[in-house]
Structure formats: structure tokens, C-alpha cells
Amino acid sequence: MDKIPILRMGNFLLVTIQVDLYDRLALDLEADLVQMVNKTSSRGVLIDISAVSIVDSFMGRIIGNIASMSKILDAETVVVGMQPAVAITLIELGLPLKGVHTALNVERGMNLLKSMIGSDIQDGEETDDDDTFAE
């Protein structure tokens, strides 16, 4: 059974999707990610989709769900690495992706998360207990 690893980086969670998601894997990622936000009290979620070439309406809805659920748990969501074809598809499908912030790459996405979280997160403040969570 496939699992998408969720990396903890201080107060943030990082997910790098390296495979095309099928429905079951996307649902598992949604559940795992929301549980990890709650378990770790993370303040931000960064999802890298640079390796994803196709996003359908289901996948778009999953990303929106992750952002909405994370927001309820006091965490912001940033999606990075979106390919132009994926952006065009999302617009053509009419998916608003409420609560989803975007950035061009991981570095800009982390900076965006830090700016959204505010001054309570400093560069040197991140804990050294970075872990990978994949069950």
C-alpha cells in the first residue's frame, strides 16, 4: 500500500507528492495530513506538487479540503510547484481552492508560511525534532 510521506520541519509539515495520485491515495493523504496537523500542532502545511502533471476535479477538491481542515486546526496551507497545465486545468474546472495559498517553489512557499504565521516563528526557532511520519 502506497503512502505519501509527511515531513515535520519545526512548526510546519512538508508533503512532496512524487506520484500521480489515485483516489484512495489522495483520501489517505488528506486523512493523514489532517491528523498530523492536529497531533503536532503544526501551524503550516506546504504541499509540493511539482511532480504532478494531472489534477482532476477530485484532486482539486482534496487540496481544498486539506486547506479548509487545516485552517480549522489553525494551520495555513501553501501549494508550491504547480505546473502551468495544472493551473489551467484548475481554472477550467472552476475550482476556487478556497484557503489555498500558492507559491512558485518550496523556498518561496516556506517564506510565505513564515510571513502568514507571523513573528512567533523565527528562523532559528525551529525545533530539531524534524521527523518523517508515514504509517
Q: Which helices and strands appear, and what pairs or packs with what?
A:
Blueprint: E1 6-9, E2 12-16, H1 23-40, E3 44-48, H2 57-72, E4 76-80, H3 84-92, E5 100-103, H4 106-117, E6 132-133
Helix pairs in contact: 1-2
Protein name: STAS domain-containing protein
InterPro entries: Bact_StressResp_Reg, STAS_dom, STAS_dom_sf
Domain STAS: 2-113
Task: Please supply descriptive tags for the structure shown above.
Transcription Regulator spoIIAA, STAS_dom_sf, six-stranded mixed sheet, 19% strand, 135 residues, 41% helix, STAS domain-containing protein, alpha/beta
Please explain how this structure is put together.
The chain is an alpha/beta fold. It has a single domain, classed as STAS domain (Transcription Regulator spoIIAA). The chain contains four helices and six strands. It has a six-stranded mixed sheet with strand order 5-4-3-2-1-6, with helices on both faces. A hairpin with a 2-residue loop joins strand 1 (6-9) and strand 2. Helix 1 packs parallel to helix 2 (57-72). The longest helix has 18 residues, at 23-40. The protein is globular, with a radius of gyration of 14 Å. Residues 122-130 have low confidence and may be disordered.
